[in-house]
Amino acid sequence: MNIIDELTWRGAINQQTDAEGLKKLTTDKKISLYCGVDPTGDSMHIGHLIPFMMMKRFELAGHHPYILIGGATGSIGDPSGRKTERQLQTMDKVRHNVKALSKQMQRLFGGDSNVTMVNNYDWLSKISLLDFLRDYGKLVNINSMLAKDIVASRLDTGISFTEFTYQILQSVDFLTLHNQHNIQLQIGGADQWGNITAGIDLIHKIKGSDEEVYGLTIPLMLKADGTKFGKTAGGAIWLDAEKTSPYEFYQFWLNQDDRDVIRYLKFFTFLGKDEIHSLEESVANEPGKRLAQRRLAEEVTRFVHGEEALESAQHISEILFAGDIQKLTLTEVQEAFEKVPNVSISAKPENIVTLLADTTDIEPSRRQAREDVENGAITVNGKRITDTKIDLNPKDNFSGKFMVIRRGKKNYFLAKVEN
């Protein structure tokens, strides 16, 4: 199957500058293409993952992807998708983020992959102001720039000259990569259409209108309920394991709505048509088994964090489902309960009612604490407590560092033992 046909089946294409020409090009030969990401932070989140999954698909089809880390453009700030000016980062911060994102990309694509990483600071930083204005600024029409959605959406609130020039800088990126590496296709999010087409316009002005270069954008990802994909009550789902643990990452995918899961399987996994069709049937006929969600969680967690992290996430999930918390290791407890409310306790044994009502405020009063204990609504380290006179010793579990308390079915608290 041609790569464009596959992307079309997966619903992964939003716009193309020349659909027929790109399909013919990718059928006739293996091409080089690129996608960029600016180092606005030290980690990508799952929203950033979408275009890079497409890059991986091109690689698997035999094409040569280039990943551009915007060491230069990241110091300026892309105005797309924003109503206000970005806060400029220090160059030290930009360099730190470049290193972090480069490491993340290497983790995603592997050291032996047919993927090349570049940094636009290497060429944009060498262009003088006069050369920029004479060689590129003279070729860009202001009226054309103002008509682009990126800029037009900011005219009412205002846009600085710095962010206004971002479009030209990204155009220079496409031109440079085309000249140096024969890159013929740029991929980006739906909000990058104006930047991508500006790059194609610049190449055509310099090299001629017959020069074969193309642009392709991915759709804006929304959930079935209309809300933005990748955002949760706890914030973004990061690719960095220090920001979002592999267990939390796995659970995010496992908890996807039946209405979204097949679309996500097409976008975020490399499973073929037959298997996805089979999973689609299971959603329709056996939704309670959640086979599609499990497969989705497995595939994406393995791709981002690796097999070992996936196995750990599954192990934690199985133990928590069974309620046998005491089988968790100290590290697994920290990972599983990092986002639940934290409370502090001493290392000394303490009465259950006192601990719940006075020490931690898990319960609003001693009376409520006694009622919940007597009614079996309190578990400590996976064990149900029904005796209001019992003393709990933190040293009994998890090396004396933690105590996991649950009130009711879903309200977890991680009690950390103070030194």
Automatic annotation (TrEMBL):
Gene3D superfamilies (UniProt xref): HUPs (3.40.50.620), RNA-binding S4 domain (3.10.290.10), Tyrosyl-Transfer RNA Synthetase (1.10.240.10)
Name of encoding gene: tyrS
Protein residues bound to L-tyrosine: Y34, Y166, Q170
UniProt keywords, alphabetically: Aminoacyl-tRNA synthetase, ATP-binding, Cytoplasm, Ligase, Nucleotide-binding, Protein biosynthesis, RNA-binding
Motif 'KMSKS' region mapped to chain: 228-232
Domain Tyrosine--tRNA ligase SYY-like C-terminal intervals: 332-414
Positions of short motif 'HIGH' region: 39-48
Record's function text: Catalyzes the attachment of tyrosine to tRNA(Tyr) in a two-step reaction: tyrosine is first activated by ATP to form Tyr-AMP and then transferred to the acceptor end of tRNA(Tyr).
Family per similarity comment: Belongs to the class-I aminoacyl-tRNA synthetase family. TyrS type 1 subfamily.
Compartments reported by the entry: Cytoplasm
EC annotation from Swiss-Prot or TrEMBL: 6.1.1.1
InterPro entries: aa-tRNA-synth_I_CS, aa-tRNA-synth_Ic, Rossmann-like_a/b/a_fold, S4_RNA-bd_sf, SYY-like_C, Tyr-tRNA-ligase, Tyr-tRNA-ligase_bac-type, Tyr-tRNA-ligase_bac_1
Quaternary assembly: Homodimer.
Cited PROSITE patterns: AA_TRNA_LIGASE_I (PS00178), S4 (PS50889)
Annotated organism of origin: Levilactobacillus suantsaiihabitans
Name of the protein this chain belongs to: Tyrosine--tRNA ligase
